[in-house]
Structures are given as C-alpha cells and as structure tokens.
Design brief:
heterodimer; A: mainly alpha; MetI-like fold; 3 domains; 26 helices; about 0% strand; globular; disordered N terminus; disordered C terminus; B: alpha/beta; Rossmann fold; CBS domain Like; 2 domains; 6-stranded mixed sheet; 4-stranded antiparallel sheet; 14 helices; 13 strands
C-alpha cells in the first residue's frame, strides 16, 4: 500500500514531538520543588497530625488479642446482617490468624480505619458545599472526575515529595481517591430529598439548621450510607495500591513483594486476605446502610442489653487470653501455610497443561492483540511473510462486502464502524497518524455532544500530543480498546442471558459482587502465574475487572424495559431472537452505553495496575515516574490517562443522554 | 337569591376576613416589573402572552381573594393552572414576585425570616399531596415534629401528638414507620401533624389526590367531620371539581395562573363565568349542589305542607318532602315560623335552564 510506505517519511505523524516532552515536565518539577522548599513545614505538620491516630490505632489492633478482635468483628457482622455474615466474618478472620497474616492484616485495617473516616468526613463536607452552592458544585464535579480518573500512582509522587516517605502518604492518597463517591452520594442524596419533605419541615417552622439536620440529612441518609460503603471499599483498594511505596508491613506489601519474587503460593494466600477483608468490610457497611433504609423498629431496650452482653463477652475473652497465650498470639508452630504445596501444584499443572494456556495466549495475541497494535501488514512483515498486493486487495474487497452488509443491517453508521475496525486491524492502532485520530474523535464528539464536547476532546488530545506521550497513549488506547471490546461482547452477552434467565442471574450476581469488591491488585496474581508478563496478561486482568459493569448495566437495561412493550412485541408475534435484537437491545441501548462507559473507566484504572505485569503504555510510564520520583512525568502521564477516560466519558454520556431523550425514557421517568 | 332563614346559618361572608390575598404575582424568569401594576385588561393579556413566549413563566397572575374565619376556601384548577404556586405563596414557601398577603391584617411578605418562622410554628399547618412524612421517624415522632422544632419537651409533645393521632383515627399505629402505612393512613398522619400546633390557618395541597377513589371519599368525610369539630380557616387545593363542590364554602377556579371565577358551588354551577367553567359543571349532579337557599321563594300562602329546613340543606335532602306534595311545600325555620316556599315548578325551571346552558 503506497499510503503506508509514505509514513516512513512522515514519522512525526505517529511519533510526535518528543522535544515537547521536556518543557512541561520540567516546569511542573520546578513548581513542585519550589512548593516543597517553601511549604514543607506545613505538610510536615499535617503528616505528624495524621500519623498520630494511625500509630495509635495500629498499636491498639496489634496489642489486642486476636480472639477478642475476631469475636468483636463477628458481633459487628451479626449486628449488620445476621448469622451468615457473622459466620463468614469469623471464618475469614480465622483464616488471617491461622495463615499467620494477622499482623499485616491489622496494619492494613489500621490504615483503612484512619483513611476511611477521613475520606468520608472530608467527602461529606465537600458534598454539603456542592449541594449549597452551584459554583462549588461545578468546580467539584471537575475535581471529582480528575480525582477518579488520574491514576493514584501519579499523585503518589508529589505526595511523597510533600509528606515524606511513610504510611501517611498512602493514607492521604487513599483519602483523595476514596472521597469522590462520598461527595457524589452526599450531593445527590441531599438534592433529591422530595420537596414536600423539605416544605413540611419549613411549614413546621424549622430554622435553616433544623431543616438541614433534622429533615434533609436524615432523609438523605440511605444515599449517604451508600457513599460511606463505596468510600470504605475505595479506601481499601487504594491502601493496597499505595503499599508499593512500602514501609508499613501491610498485606498489600506482602502480596507485592511475593509476587515480585514469583512466589505464587505466598502471593495467592496473602491475596486471599485482601479479598476476604474487602468482602467483610463491604458486607458489614452495606448491612448497616440497608438498616438505615428499611427503618426496622428495634426496641432500644434489647439493643442496649445486647451491647452490654457483647461488652461482657469481650472482657471475658480478654481475661481468658491473658491466661492462655495461644488466644493472644497464634503460636507459629500452629500456622497453616500450604504455600509450598500450592507452588508444587502450580508447577505440576503448568508442566502438564501449560501448552493450553500458551496456545490460548498465542491465538489471542495473533488474532486480536497484534493486529490491533501494529496491524496485519507489519505483523506479516515481522514474521518474514509479505502480503502480496493481490491478497491486500482481497482483504479490502472483503471489507467492502462487510461494509455493504453492515450498511443494509445498520445503515451508514455500521459501514463506517466496519471500515474503521478494518483499517485499524490493517494498519494497527499505534500507526494511526494523529491528524486522522483527531478527526475521527472530533467528529464523533461533535455528533454526540455538539461543539463543546468536540472542543474538550480536541483540547485533551492536544495536551497528550504536546507532552510527547502520544506513543504510549496509543499503546494504552490499543490495550484498552481490545479489553473494552472483549468486555463489551462477552459482558453484553452474559448480561443479556442474565436478563432472560433468572437462575443465571441469581448465579452471576454474587460473582459480580465479589469481582467488584476485590481490590484490583489481587487480579494480577492468578493472571501473572498462568500467562506470565506481557500484554495478554494485562488484557485478561483488565477484562476480568472491567467486565462487571457491562454485565450489570445490560441486565438492568433489558430488565427495566416496560412490560407492556415486551408484551406488545410478543403479541405481534416476535420470536425470542427478534424480540432480543429488535426490541430489547435498542431500547436498552442507553443503559448499555452507560455500562460501556463504566467499563472504559474501570479498564483505564486497571491499566495502571496492569503495568506491574509489564506493559509499555502510559501505565508503565506512570510506574517508572513513580520509581524515579519524577513529579512532572507522573503528573503529565496521569493527566493523559485521565484525558483518555474523560474524552470517552463525555462522548458516551452525551450520546446516551441524547438517545434517552429520543426514546422518551427520561420523560417516562419524570411523569 | 339570598334568603336568611334563621340565625343558625350565617354565611361565611359575614365573618371577619382571616387571610387576604391581594394582587399576588409569581413569575419565574427575568421580567419587567411594570406589568404588576396592570389590571385585567386586553393589554395585560397580550403582555402576559409575550412573557410566556419569551420563556418566562408567570405561574400566578394578579391573584386576589379573601378567606373568612372558619371558611373552607377551595382553589380548583387543572395541573399547571398555578394553584400550587398560589398556596405556596400564601405560606411563603414560594416567594411571590409582587402583592400583599394579609394574615389578620399583618403583611406576611414584610415579615422577617424570624417572624415568619414564628408564624409558621404557631399559626399555620399544611398537608401535602405526597404526604411529606419524614421516613426515618415513627408516626408519633412525625406528628410531634412541629412541636419538637419549637423546643417543646418530649413528654408534652408526645402526649399532644397522641391526641392528634387519636383524632384522625390512627390510635395503635404510633410506633409504625410511614413506609409501613397505606396511603390513606399516611395522609391521616400528615393531617394529624399539620394540626398538632393548633394552627389558625390550615392549608391542604391536593391532600387526597394520591389516594384511591373509595379512600378519597372516606377521607373527605373525615375532613368534613374534623372541620365541624375544629372550625379552622382552610385553603384547600384540588384538581377535582366534584371534590371542590363537596367540600367548599366557596370555590376559586384557576386557569393559566389567573382566577376565573370565585363563588359558592351553586353560584358556579348555576352561573358559570365562561365556557371553561361550564365544561366542569357539565357532569355535576345539580340536586347535590343546590341548597334550599338556592330554590326558595317568598311564601305566597297557598301551600299547605310544611317542612323545616336549614338554608344550607342540599336540595337532594329536601326532595323527600315532595312525596305527597307534588306542587311544593312551605319551609319553616327551627322555631316553626314559615320563611318561604319551594315549588316543583321552580326546581324544574332551574334544572331545565341549567341543562339548556350546558348543551
């Protein structure tokens, strides 16, 4: 193809402006240095202030006998959601005791125990501010977007420089990462209190203070509790991620260091601790949140009795643990630690069935990943074959046919989509000249959301171009696109199945819940040992994490279709497949698109974590910047990832909103 | 047609004006304040039309009426007619753009926030269409809420709340949460709460619209029973013309932010101001609406049968007296003196004329 060979002379189209990379990063570093030099005393003070409760809590959790802590958590679990959760909690904590990870677990818990209230408190305050003032709300929403899309690794660097090495950095990073859901839920909860409620408060003659604290906040409490739950989960997730800076002997560090030493058994067992801890924290906080919602009337007398009984039990346990040291500290000779056996099993499996995984990996690599990355043309070049002009022509003829078919099935847009995919596979995403991508994204944004969205997208892409990160950004884009496409197809199919099959739905729901509660980090453990490092491992980890919203939203979208519409379709004699493709999917499309949006966000956030298994994209750049403590590089790369996320988000949200309006879904809801 | 049969029936109009709403305007969006001075003229109509097309929403246009002490004043209108805006202006839940609201002679629009809170705490109560119950409080705590806001101690406010709960017939459900009650029961809680502070003014914003027809009927009766006990000054909002007729001493009909007609049910049915109002009166069972006062004539001396009637007795209730007296009968007051007569021909004429008009 002549077009392609042209590009050898025009490398600036794909490998841009490395000379631009310097100034922006250097500028940021300069600002950072000045900041550190002038204000380090203030940050030192904050650091001291925060480390105080942290060391206190850590000391207390370490000092308490494990039996007391275990029973205390079991009782809390029982109070939150009854017997089953109590048993689960007891079993999980016992796992931490028996495997000898108690100390590490308690350290992580101490971090969460300080960071979560901090995030929730700050989040509540910001949420109230955003609810009160429109200006604050607009500023906040932009900040929240940034806080959630800029990968945590990239603000760990400036935090490290400001607060100095130590667990406080992880604490603050967690609080930053975890407060957005709280802010959003508080703003949403306060704003959506029914007006009749507020008016009834006002008509009772409530002052502003009374009206806020006695009417609005209690009425919004269920929503606020949802925020608390999400904040706790985000905190845990971030505490684990922040352990890469080390120095606190927490469970995240344990996982990371064993993973680096390629000790699968050890990292799996410590990873289990994280997963269990996440599930316990989630179920307990969700349990209390639903208490608020259902407003079950529990007589206060029996509650205070139960409290007194629990306190007595714990005291008794404490006394007993003074007599029997095994109840205070689990004897090391009792430790159950089958890491070596797991490793043996793994090496046996790999030697026996390793070829299966290798084959899967190769198929996906050659059929999906590599074409997307560098294109068929280069792929064949690299393997020593050249595609003859005839074959190239055949490819394009096939594409043309597909376009024609698509244009019959889904009108012009389908044809455009097919053409874009075909071109991407032929030339490779990373070889697309930037003006072309600018044009495609610009047109898509303009179509979906008008001039504003288009302007935002182009400005964002220019930023990436100017910081010289275009190359890694395209690698991120390719990995993300592959993962999202896979999640979209597989997740959409699973979601559609769940929507029509109640038993499958009941099965997949807890699976989804679990996948969503487990901190991203843990996903890497099995992937890296089955598939080694590389793009494919990253792809699997990203898909496993980002498929959940796709399944959820598809099921929700199809299930919430008006019954009368389904009945009308059946009444007109639609077959099951006709109904699915001509009725369900088009009507559910806005919900499905929002699921896709979430999937993209999840994929981007996982991208950075997946850099730990050796990708070469923006995630890796962030990680390198972190190890070099290079603020400028960390921030520009972080912003670039955030920009990719925000551009995708704006375009898809705008499209979904437009579509929803067309389908009259919003009108139906408001009527 | 105003005959005063005896002193037991004083028309509400004789009592003192409790709440006076003068030239109230409420406009959403930027607008020229000059329009507030304009009275009901064709120029104003075109000015309002221009406002609407410019994207400004005039929700209440020059609304004026008086509510007398002990009267049930119903504002009836379809959705978007501005009735909810007007009742919210009366309590300043919505700030009117222009006008005066005199409550016992005091202009509420001049009241300071502190004074307003004071008035709302002690002298106003309001019932909401969607109940407006606090989901996290029990029935007892909900009813006691207005007293809690005032700082009344727990024991006193709860005993007062229990009284109110008993009054609305919910005794035994004090510890339930709103979500555990049916719609009708929830609205009883709303009514009890609005009455807890013994308000002089009682606002009801479509209180029964969210309820089933049967429950609605039951609640209307309940409401009338309460009013005979409590004798509040009431502003009642509804979109249901039949409900308005059943409950009202006087009705104001609103359309597009303006009041079209104010009058008693019979006045509106017998003399609708325009076609819009006439459309509502079409399905009204006339015998329910008309009272003895509407059909009574001076006594001419030849009718023998007598019947003791109050002026506000409905014609339907007086009908049985025609049995055996096909021509008509003489009406006496409670002490037995004849005050007038009701003839079959008069009743027939009114029915015929009414039918003629609505055809």
């Amino acid at each position: 193809m002549p077009l392609f060979y042209f590009q050898h002379d025009l490398t600036w189209l794909t490998n841009t402006a490395v000379w631009l990379k310097g100034p922006i990063e250097r500028g940021l570093n300069l600002v950072m240095d000045m900041f550190v030099a002038n204000f380090s005393w203030a940050f030192g003070a904050i650091s001291w202030l925060l480390s105080w409760p942290l060391t206190e809590l850590q000391g207390m959790l370490q000092w308490l006998p494990w039996s007391v802590t275990l029973v205390a958590f079991t009782l809390v679990g029982f109070a939150a959601a009854g017997c089953r959760l109590a048993i689960f909690t007891a079993a999980s904590l016992f796992y931490m005791v028996a495997t000898g990870y108690w100390q590490e677990s308690m350290n992580t818990l101490a971090l969460v125990g300080v960071a979560a209230p901090l995030a929730a408190g700050v989040g509540f305050g910001m949420g109230v501010l955003g609810y009160r003032s429109g200006v604050a709300r607009r500023v906040l929403i932009i900040c929240l977007d940034l806080m959630q899309t800029v990968p945590a690794f990239s603000y760990l660097v400036p935090l490290l420089l400001l607060f100095g090495f130590g667990p406080v950095v992880g604490l603050i990073a967690s609080a930053i990462y975890a407060c957005p859901p709280m802010v959003r839920n508080v703003m949403h909860g306060l704003a959506s209190v029914p007006s009749a409620l507020v008016e009834s408060g006002e008509m009772s003659g409530a002052t502003r203070w009374q009206s806020f604290w006695w009417v609005r906040v209690p009425a919004a409490l269920p929503q606020i509790m949802v925020g608390v739950n999400q904040t706790i989960m985000a905190t845990l997730s971030m505490v684990i991620i922040a352990s890469v800076i080390g120095g606190f002997n927490d469970i995240g560090w344990e996982v990371l260091s064993t993973m680096r030493k390629a000790q699968f058994g050890q990292s799996l067992m410590s990873g289990m601790v994280i997963a269990l801890m996440a599930m316990i924290l989630d179920r307990i906080s969700a349990g209390f949140a639903s208490h608020v919602r259902s407003t079950v009337n529990t007589p206060t007398v029996s509650r205070s009795n139960a409290l007194a009984a629990s306190a007595l039990l714990l005291l008794a346990l404490f006394a007993a643990s003074m007599l029997f040291p095994a109840m205070r500290q689990w004897p090391s000779e009792w430790r159950v630690y089958p890491a070596a056996q797991i490793n043996d099993f793994l090496s046996y499996t790999v030697s026996r069935y390793g070829w299966v995984f290798a084959e899967i990996k190769q198929i996906v690599n050659f059929c999906i990943l590599l074409p997307l990355k560098i294109g068929w043309l280069r792929l064949f070049d690299a393997t020593g074959y050249t595609i003859s002009p005839v074959n190239q022509a055949a490819y394009w003829v096939a594409v043309l046919c597909a376009m024609l078919l698509a244009s019959f099935a889904w009108k012009g847009r389908g044809a455009v989509l097919v053409a874009l995919v075909a071109a991407a596979c032929f030339f490779g995403l990373t070889n697309i000249p930037w003006p072309v991508l600018f044009m495609v994204v610009g047109v898509a944004a303009w179509q979906a959301g008008g001039v504003g969205t288009a302007g935002f997208s182009l400005a964002g892409m220019s930023f990436i171009l100017m910081t010289g990160l275009w190359g890694p950004a395209m690698l991120s884009l390719y990995l993300c696109a592959a993962a999202v496409a896979l999640s979209f197809v597989v997740g959409g199919a699973l979601g559609a199945l769940a929507a029509s099959n109640d038993r499958f739905s009941a099965f997949i729901r807890p699976v989804n819940d679990t996948l969503q509660t487990i901190p991203q980090f843990v996903y890497l453990i099995p992937v890296i040992f089955l598939f080694q490092v590389g793009d494919f491992s990253a792809l699997i980890a990203i898909v496993a994490f980002s498929i959940v919203p796709m399944i959820r939203y598809t099921e929700h979208g199809i299930r919430s279709i008006d019954h009368e519409i389904s009945e009308a379709a059946i009444g007109m004699g639609c077959s099951t497949l006709q109904k699915r493709f001509q009725i369900d999917l088009p009507i559910a499309s806005p919900a499905i698109m929002l699921g896709l949006n979430q999937t993209i966000m999840y994929a981007l956030s996982m991208l950075v974590i997946a850099a730990l298994v050796g990708t070469r994209d923006l995630g890796q750049s962030v990680y390198i910047a972190l190890t070099n403590a290079d603020t400028g590089a960390a921030l520009t790369t972080g912003f670039s990832i955030a920009i990719i996320g925000m551009v995708a988000d704006r375009i898809i949200q705008a499209w979904a909103k437009k579509r929803q309006r067309q389908l009259g879904l919003q009108e139906i809801r408001s009527a | 047609m105003t005959y005063f049969l005896d002193d037991q029936v004083g028309s509400a109009k004789d009592r003192k004006v409790k709440l006076s709403c003068r030239n109230i305007w409420k406009c959403y969006g930027p607008m020229d304040s000059g329009i507030y001075q304009m009275r009901d003229t064709p120029e104003r109509a075109s000015a309002v039309a221009a406002l609407r097309s410019s994207g400004c929403v005039p929700a209440a246009i020059d609304v004026s009426f008086d509510v007398h002490a002990g009267e049930i004043f119903v504002i009836m209108g379809l959705s978007g007619s501005g009735k909810s805006t007007v009742i919210r202006c009366l309590s300043r839940l919505v700030e009117p753009s222009y006008g005066e609201i005199l409550f016992d002679g005091e202009d509420l629009l001049e009241a300071s926030p502190k004074r307003l809170i004071e008035i709302r705490r002690r002298r106003m109560g309001m019932v909401f269409q969607s109940f407006g119950l606090l989901p996290h409080l029990t029935v007892l705590e909900n009813v006691a809420f207005p007293l809690r806001v005032q700082g009344v101690d727990r024991q006193r406010r709860e005993s007062r709340a229990s009284e109110m709960i008993e009054l609305v017939g919910l005794k035994g459900r004090e510890c339930a949460f709103p979500a555990q009650l049916s719609g009708g029961q929830q609205q009883r809680v709303g009514i009890a709460r609005s009455l807890a502070v013994e308000p002089e003014l009682w606002f009801l914003d479509e209180p029964f619209s969210a309820l089933d027809p049967l429950i609605r009927r039951q609640m209307q009766n309940e409401f009338l029973r309460l009013q005979t006990l409590l004798k509040k000054t009431i502003v009642f909002i509804t979109h249901d013309f039949l409900e308005a007729i059943r409950l009202a001493d006087r009705i104001a009909i609103m359309k597009d932010g303006q009041i079209i007609q104010i009058g008693s049910a019979a006045e509106i049915v017998l003399k609708p101001a325009n076609d819009y109002v006439r459309e509502f009166t079409r399905d009204v069972p006339l015998a329910h609406v008309l009272t003895v006062a509407d059909v009574i004539e001076p006594y001419r001396g030849h009718l023998q049968a007598t019947q003791s009637c109050g002026a506000d007795m409905s014609l339907l209730d007086a009908m049985p007296s025609f049995a055996g007296n096909p021509e008509g009968f003489a009406v006496t007051n409670s002490s037995g003196a004849i005050v007038g007569e009701i003839t079959a021909s008069k009743v027939l004429t009114i029915f015929a004329e009414s039918q003629e008009r609505t055809r």
